[in-house]
Design brief:
By secondary structure, the protein is α/β, with parallel strands linked by helices. It has three domains: 106 residues, Nucleotidyltransferase, domain 5, CATH 3.30.420; 87 residues; 76 residues, no CATH class.
């Protein structure tokens, strides 16, 4: 049965897909160029005999292609392109990349990206809509402040954006062209904020259909919006074996470096006492989830409550405020994961468990 296994690498582009097929011994048995259409891809897959294992890189078409293939092949691996160093070495072409992907799949050297939960697919799209509109709102606000500051108009806080004081701010820019530009930015801001409120309403309505929403929203300062983003981005808690895996996914894990960990003393191998170097938080992560937990930690460090008490205890131990907020963010992430797995609501007792 082992000899019937085929390893298929796909180099996916908007109009074409380069395909390379290897057998169990690593011999190239087939290469082809397909159109990026469902019928063409399925016809090719059904025409290759054996048990197929398919891989391709995470990208624009990866979710669509995963849903298309997962029911027609034995295994689908959507891999992380940032960790495919072999594809950057030597000559590069679509066919070469497809063959290298198949070789990495056969060797078991790919880092998979999670796919497979259709229950949160609608929420994922609604969250993307909301976060994109939030970014657009922030961008327009920054442009308005930059416009005023470029003409020596001191502005701060939220007053320049509200409709109540808008005319007062517009009167401070005398040039007709500048005033017209500021008015257009205000028109954009009003339109985007209207869309953002509608997107938020749809996102919350969809997230409330899941039982996990109530559990996650019960954590102080996580709230409805952050809980919705967490559900859409993480999808299921059991994909993370431990809190440390979850921290790495959220950008809250420490990156360490060490070398020459062992040495020989009197013929015995001993571990070196040289300290491990810490290089900060991991860079490869989900930015939305990092913003969720950092935002919750920042809010919790300001307002009274059990999380503020946890933060104050860290400061009392001599920890710097910025490190204390990171530790608090890790604590909130660990609590969210364990509550989600156990199906329980927030209880201050979880603050007594070690989180870092």
């Amino acid at each position: 049965m082992k000899n019937t296994i085929k390893y298929v690498g796909l180099d996916v582009h908007p109009s074409t897909v380069s395909v390379a097929v290897l057998d169990a011994e690593g011999k190239l048995i087939l290469q082809s160029i397909l159109a990026t259409h469902a019928a063409a891809i399925l016809d090719f897959v059904h025409g290759v005999r054996g048990s197929l294992q398919v891989t391709f890189e995470e990208g624009t078409q990866s979710a669509w292609l995963y849903d298309l293939l997962v029911r027609h092949v034995a295994k689908v691996v959507v891999c992380n392109p940032r960790k495919n160093a072999l594809l950057k070495a030597g000559n590069k072409s679509d066919q070469i990349d497809a063959r290298k992907l198949a070789e990495l799949l056969r060797a078991g050297l790919l880092s998979p990206v999670y796919h497979g939960e259709n229950s949160y697919r609608i929420l994922q799209e609604l969250v993307r809509s909301y976060t994109t509109l939030t970014e657009d709102t922030t961008r327009i606000m920054a442009r308005l402040k930059a416009l005023y500051r470029s003409h020596a108009v001191v502005c701060g806080g939220k007053k320049p954006y509200g409709k109540r004081h808008r005319q007062e701010w517009l009167q401070q820019v005398r040039q007709p062209g500048l005033a017209s530009r500021a008015q257009r930015l205000y028109d954009q801001l009003d339109a985007v904020q209207t869309l953002r409120r509608a997107a938020k309403h749809e996102m919350l309505a969809e997230s409330q259909k899941s039982g996990a929403y109530r559990l996650l929203a019960s954590i102080p300062y996580l709230g409805p919006v952050r809980a919705s983003i967490l559900m859409a981005r993480a999808q299921v808690p059991n994909r993370f074996r431990s809190k440390r895996q979850f921290w790495a996914y959220c950008g809250l894990a420490l990156e360490t470096r060490s070398s020459a960990e062992y040495h020989v003393v009197q013929g015995q191998v001993q571990r070196s006492r040289k300290p491990v170097f810490i290089r900060g938080l991991n860079l490869n992560h989900n930015h939305d989830l990092k913003n969720v937990f950092k935002g919750a930690a920042t809010a919790a460090s300001i307002h009274d409550g059990p999380l503020r008490q946890f933060y104050d205890r860290l400061l009392a131990k001599g920890m710097k405020p910025e490190l204390a907020r990171v530790t608090l963010a890790r604590k909130i992430a660990a609590m969210a994961l364990i509550l989600w797995k156990k199906g329980e609501s927030f209880d201050p007792k979880y603050l007594m468990l070690p989180a870092a």
